[in-house]
Structures are given as structure tokens and as C-alpha cells.
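hey so i finally got around to running the thing on that chain from the lab meeting. sorry it took forever, my laptop kept dying and i had to restart like 3 times. anyway pasting the input first so we r on the same page abt which one it is
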Amino acid sequence: MSVNDPGAQQGGPSRRAELKRAYKEKPPPMGVYAVRNHANGKVLVGSSVNLPGILNRTRFALSTGCYRTHPALQEDWNRYGADSFSFEVLDVLPPTEEPRADPKEELSVLEALWLERLRPYGDAGYNGSPA
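ok and heres what got predicted. didnt touch it at all, straight out
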């Protein structure tokens, strides 16, 4: 790159491509999340192999009225409004050097621990009762 190259001074297309590649190669954080209703104290606990993705998807679905997984959550969102809710990461699976064989199994155990701790059932939350 020469000094006259417009991309040389601001990182340019090659720097941008490098950052994009690095982003795509880095796996998203996996773990357990909560959606809290501060108006009535209810909480939804879930887990995902892509925490930013599930939180964005849930927020979008609720805000557009398309959230079908837990209808009571959508009803409360409509009743109390977005400002009454928070989206939280409760726990993250630490990254490993080796790829995980089945991260969903680890996530399931981690989620079960949080479900036991928070007990988000009935009047306390949006999760279905444990079997």
C-alpha cells in the first residue's frame, strides 16, 4: 500500500476484509440467558449456542408481536411495554481450544442449574413446569 492509497490511512478495504474474516472465524458466545419482566417479576430462562443471536431474535419477535414460543411473555410485553423488560446473559460457556463435540449437552446442564436456581415457573416466570 502506498501513502497515496486512500485505504492506507483509514484501514482501507484490506483491513476491513481482515476484520470481517476474523469476526466470522470467531464463534459467538454460548450460554444461558434471561428475559426479565420488571413490572411483575416474571423471568424466562433459556440457552443458546449463539447468545447475541437469540437475544436479538427474541427482542425483535417481541417488538413486532411475532413471538410465539411463550405466549404469556408476548402478552406481558404488549401490556407493559419494552421498557419493562431486560435481556441478560446469565452464564457463558468458556471458549475452548478444541471444538466441542456437542455444546448443546453442556448448555442443557447449565440451563438446568439456572432453572433450579431461579424457578421461573407459574407466577414466577414464563418457562413450562419441569417434568
